[in-house]
Amino acid sequence: MEINQIVQELKQTSQKAPRKDWIGEWFKLKREIGNPNDIYITSGKFGQTSFEWMTLPHEYVDGVGGLAWLLIKQGQQITKLPEIKNKSKPSLINWIQFSLDLIDYLKSNDKKLKQIPWKKFNQEITRKSEIPRFRILESDMTNKIKNLAKMNQVSVNSILLWTLSKTCEKHLLESPRTQLWGMPVNMRGLVNLPNQFANHVSFSLVSFNPQDTFNIFHHKIKKRLESKSYFCIWKILNIGKYLGKSKLKKLAVKEKNSPNKLMGIFSNLGIWNPSDNKKGPDFWVAGDSTCSKYPIKAAVLGWKDCISISLNINPAVCSFETTTQEILNAWYDEINQLLSPQEIQ
């Protein structure tokens, strides 16, 4: 099926839904003001050197929904999309803590979070980046990461984001600093829109400090998820249904022009086991477009017994395409180094 036909079908499915996808509306307004968000997805066989990327507008799907849609179109049997594990809603204490954290974040005078000391940054470059670059962690390397995570009682996700943070510290920043990362959270199972492919995505924020071990970093992520702040952020992201499109567009313009405190967005699309393990690609890869405000987008995706890691860095931070590939390779090497016996903590 041609990608244009797929996008049209996604658009029609979105328009027919009885309830509006307000996060999708937010992405639509961002595109109108010159700050588009697109999801990139591809697949391939080991040894393959050229790839056909499919571009899906974030207005109609999130990463999980887009991948599921494509898999279904290719004949995979997917009856239910992945859901969040913790389906409980935040308590009053959680809401109060979130409100205090939000006020502190908005009023923060911490220059370490307001000014990111990039080695190279050109604020005049406003265009989005090109397609992501990716590497495949094949079965042997994936098993080693899983064993390391199990041995240290941490998640694979924590290890991968920790190694990415270390890589960015070495190659993109003038000096070590606190890095604030946005982690998308799949809200399916906790909130359910009529269109299961629509944007069921919220975010959790986690800070990486230069002295953090991956054990400490994992516990930071765990604590943030336990706070259920992602549910509170979900409510904020859906504020459009109370404000309407005109006021939501004003917020989108204000958000575009406000200083950015985030280092980047790190997405984990989960582990997918195909219904037919013998046919189809050896791996799938997902990624996201960037802009100068959110210059780094990374994504990981488990398929069969391997994991893909992708990286997209905006030209405002990396002027040349090869630089993104070099930093991706450095991330891969950081993971490999961690898996050597002397590095196991």
Question: How does this structure look, described?
Answer:
It contains twelve helices and nine strands. The strands form two sheets. Strands 3-9-8-6-4-5 form a six-stranded mixed sheet. It is α+β, with helices and mostly antiparallel strands and 345 residues long. It has a single domain (3-82, 110-343), classed as Chloramphenicol Acetyltransferase. The relative contact order is 0.20. The protein has helices at residues 3-16, 22-32, 63-73, 92-106, 111-114, 139-152, 156-171, 214-226, 229-237, 240-243, 245-257, 321-338, and strands at residues 38-44, 54-57, 133-137, 179-186, 201-208, 264-272, 283-288, 296-303, 306-313.
Topology (elements, then pairings):
Layout: H1 3-16, H2 22-32, E1 38-44, E2 54-57, H3 63-73, H4 92-106, H5 111-114, E3 133-137, H6 139-152, H7 156-171, E4 179-186, E5 201-208, H8 214-226, H9 229-237, H10 240-243, H11 245-257, E6 264-272, E7 283-288, E8 296-303, E9 306-313, H12 321-338
Parallel strand pairs: 4-6, 6-8
Antiparallel strand pairs: 1-2, 1-7, 3-9, 4-5, 8-9
Helix pairs in contact: 2-11, 7-8, 7-12
